[in-house]
Design goal:
Length: 348
């Protein structure tokens, strides 16, 4: 079988010729996986944020900017602290010097439990006492920012609670009714970063895809698309990352139904077919997008692979610091995503 040229897009872009030319996640058995993943939405009134310029935003309020550094009064409350992503965020925030309040929200079954992370004991509260607890924490820590890494079914209820109490938040949880999520925050006029994809480098890749879709509509008209994405078995929904990238391909003229995404959640398949290192089966994000011309003579493949959760945790801390700065500057815009964070150019 003839080999196929790949255009592989990841946190470091490179060209390679895989042994298996047809929808193979790993072009080489010993290839080191690149760290990445994608998925976020724009505001209610637009499907995706249009990015035509990556120039930095205004630099007014120097005092406020300089004061939003680790250890300068910012506190975070990580909801979903018992999960792997929640724990990763706590570790990253602790390393950055951000204060972590010893309180978190979880399921009714987790109520009363204590989770220890970085030597800190965090008490988990159930749904019944959330509003009272959050109001108390916010009163004690007026520069509180909530970080949400819970479950898709809790997204909208949690956002309504944060909005009711008036607490700014970073929503890293995927799923839920995204339009309703934005509407809730807009009506409450609170500050928030909403981006299921917190991996900065992957967001930059998605921004580049959006630029291409915006400036070259129809460039891939007639091409067929196949998409496979592999995540840990605990991820129940289809990747928002894949959906966002597919949306760009649709703008480029590709006809594709989101229901066609091939979801790989079986550990054996992930190791043998996808090429996920066994030690990362419980935490990874491998994505592959395969385009073929109508006459089958041309193909393109875009691939980005992430092992572990550090890329998302670090991006989340950057989003917290970014949001704290906007709050102190009393910025007119109140709802942001990770492209806004990237534009700022002040990431650690």
């Amino acid at each position: 079988m003839a080999t196929t040229n790949w255009l592989t897009a990841s946190s470091s872009v490179f060209l390679t010729r895989p042994v298996n030319p047809r929808l193979a996640f790993a072009s080489r058995t010993n290839q080191t996986p690149c760290r990445s993943r994608v998925s976020f939405q724009g505001s209610v009134k637009r499907r995706l944020p249009v990015v035509l310029s990556m120039t930095a935003t205004e630099e007014s309020g120097e005092g406020a900017v300089k004061s939003v550094l680790p250890g300068h009064g910012i506190s975070i409350m990580v909801n979903g602290c018992s999960g792997k992503m929640g724990k990763a965020v706590i570790k990253a925030a602790d390393s950055a010097g951000v204060n972590i309040v010893p309180t978190s929200f979880g399921s009714a079954a987790e109520a009363g439990q204590t989770v220890e992370v970085c030597g800190k004991e965090i008490t988990v509260h159930g749904p019944a006492e959330r509003e009272k607890v959050l109001s108390s924490v916010f009163e004690k820590h007026p520069e509180l920012i909530v970080v949400d890494y819970t479950i898709p079914s809790a997204v909208n209820d949690n956002a309504e609670l944060y909005s009711k109490v008036g607490v700014p938040f970073v929503m890293g949880t995927t799923g839920g009714d995204r339009n309703k999520l934005y509407e809730t925050v807009e009506e409450a006029k609170i500050y928030a970063v909403i981006s299921p994809q917190m991996g900065k480098q992957v967001v930059a890749f998605l921004a580049a895809m959006e630029i291409m879709a915006e400036q070259f509509p129809g460039a891939f008209s007639g091409y067929s698309l196949e998409v496979m994405e592999s995540h840990q078995a605990s991820k129940l929904d289809a990747s928002g990352t894949a959906k966002a990238v597919i949306s760009c391909f649709q703008e480029l003229g590709v006809s594709y139904d989101m229901d066609q995404i091939q979801l790989i959640r079986d550990p054996k398949q992930q190791i043998e077919m996808v090429g996920v290192p066994e030690e990362h089966v419980s935490g990874h994000a491998f994505h592959l997008y395969h385009l073929t011309s109508p006459d089958k003579t041309v193909s393109f493949e875009f691939q980005h692979n992430v092992c572990g959760r550090s890329i998302y945790a670090e991006g989340t801390v950057d989003a917290v610091l970014f949001l704290a700065k906007k709050i102190r500057l009393k910025a007119e815009q109140r709802i942001y995503n990770m492209i806004d964070v990237l534009r700022e150019g002040n990431m650690r």
